[in-house]
Amino acid sequence: MTKINLRLILVSGKTKEFLFSPNDSAADIAKHVYDNWPMDWEEEQVSSPNILRLIYQGRFLHGNVTLGALKLPFGKTTVMHLVARETLPEPNSQGQRNREKTGESNCCVIL
């Protein structure tokens, strides 16, 4: 089976490469990384694999998304960010709520 090479980047800038199958989901990857936490990432160790989140092209990946579904290229390195977060942001809800509170719109006034 062909593997996908993922380079995971922590907020601290530390990176590590892992090989995964296209059938692996974001949750599988988080668990694998947690179970095989790199020695030089010791300072960033988290308490549970359930709070590890992958970010790909600026988007949080939900746990059930597989690498195959993202159509990642084989034989090339794909870069993702790995962050610790309890919950994923709901799509668009945060920005919506903030705008309602302040009553501001996204329009610009050009002088």
Report on this model:
The protein is an alpha+beta fold. It has a single domain (4-84), classed as Roll (Ubiquitin-like (UB roll)). It contains two helices and five strands; from the N terminus they run E-E-H-E-E-E-H. It has a five-stranded mixed sheet, covered by helices on one side. The radius of gyration is 17 Å and the shape is globular. Mean pLDDT is 85; it is low at 93-105.
Number of helices: 2
Rounded mean pLDDT is: 85
Radius of gyration, Cα only, in angstroms?
17 Å
Helix/strand order, N-terminal first: EEHEEEH
Query: What fraction strand?
Result: 15-25%
Distance between the termini: 60 Å
CATH topology: Ubiquitin-like (UB roll)
Strand line-up across the major sheet: 2-1-5-3-4
In one word, what is the shape? globular
Question: What is the assigned CATH homologous superfamily?
Answer: Phosphatidylinositol 3-kinase Catalytic Subunit, Chain A, domain 1
How helix-rich are the residues, as a percent range? 10-25%
Number of strand segments = 5
Q: Which sheet architecture does the biggest sheet show? A: 5 strands, mixed
In total, how many domains does the architecture comprise? 1
CATH architecture: Roll
Report the top-level CATH class. Answer: Alpha Beta
- List unreliable stretches of 5+ residues: 93-105
| Class by alpha and beta content | alpha+beta
Subcellular location: Cell membrane
Main location: membrane
GO cellular component, one term: plasma membrane
Organism: Hirundo rustica rustica
